[in-house]
């Protein structure tokens, strides 16, 4: 008699336990380092007098200043504070696109200048100041980068405007 | 049936009925993979850890610069001042420095784990300023003025990233 022994068919399965272990530990690590509020920073330094030997510049300093009040932003240049342009405040919003456009124009003529002085009035809200700082530091996404000549006559290009923000009357 | 036969049959029955329970963890792994992807997306490479205090709304900004760990001064909507999440007092209108803030900043301790003198020198000049977006410039101005006089002239304004 033939005894047909039916052998049990064992289906080979992948052992997922080590993978699960690794994923679990990885998840705990990421959970500890996760930040659900996207935090960034904008740097600014108190104005300081630095003793640096400077070569006598042929061009006068730009001395770019923004006077921020509730009605407008006044762009001033030069040591005498000559008014370059006035950007109006329309329906409680500053026209930041125009501000950015004017600053791009100034930057293209003064590629080596990096600093800007902000002079807001005491009642201007912090949120508006941050928006202005954004417009002052770099060009908006989608806008063409700025091209111009540096002080040596060399053509350079940049997407940064005036990164060094100084608030006047801090010290 | 004698007792030995009964015992043998019982043993055989127990042996045959030993089944290993197979747990199907495919769906659990699915969930973990999705969770992993989400956490990878929110991974933060900066060493700055901020616990925002109550009644604090940060202004939005295009800035992408990551912050660094240093003293954190927070002033919320109710004008309460916090240093490293500890309430030190309330902001009061005035002309010059904020006295409570000035004294706390001057007395702030250098963390004991920093040993390199150069690191101490650069680290103690920076200050992270976290202000509620509704506060007027005069509050910011006095906080900066006080911080600069207390020996922290490098201001870092903490803002919330904005995706366009």
Notes on the structure:
- The complex is a heterodimer of chains A (171) and B (164).
- Chain A has helices spanning 17-33, 96-109, 126-137; strands at 39-45, 65-68, 72-77, 82-90, 93-94, 115-120, 146-149, 155-158, 164-167.
- With 171 residues, chain A is α/β, with parallel strands linked by helices.
- Chain A has a domain at 65-167.
- In chain A, β2 (65-68) and β3 form a beta hairpin.
- With 164 residues, chain B is α/β, with parallel strands linked by helices.
- Chain B has 2 domains: 3-41, no CATH class; 60-161, no CATH class.
- The longest helix of chain B has 16 residues, at 26-41.
- The model of chain B has no long low-confidence stretch (mean pLDDT 82).
- The interface between A and B is large, with 46 and 56 residues.
- β1 (39-45) of chain A pairs antiparallel with β6 of chain B, so a sheet runs across the interface.
Give me a quick take on this structure.
The complex is a heterodimer of chains A (171) and B (164). Chain A is α/β, with parallel strands linked by helices and 171 residues long.
Task: Compile the SSE list and pairings.
The complex is a heterodimer of chains A (171) and B (164).
Chain A: H1 17-33, E1 39-45, E2 65-68, E3 72-77, E4 82-90, E5 93-94, H2 96-109, E6 115-120, H3 126-137, E7 146-149, E8 155-158, E9 164-167
Parallel strand pairs in A: 2-6, 6-9
Antiparallel strand pairs in A: 2-3, 3-4, 4-5, 7-8
Helix pairs in contact in A: 2-3
Chain B: H1 3-16, H2 26-41, E1 60-61, E2 71-75, E3 80-83, E4 86-90, H3 99-106, H4 117-123, E5 126-131, H5 137-149, E6 154-161
Parallel strand pairs in B: 1-6, 2-5, 5-6
Antiparallel strand pairs in B: 2-3, 3-4
Helix pairs in contact in B: 3-5
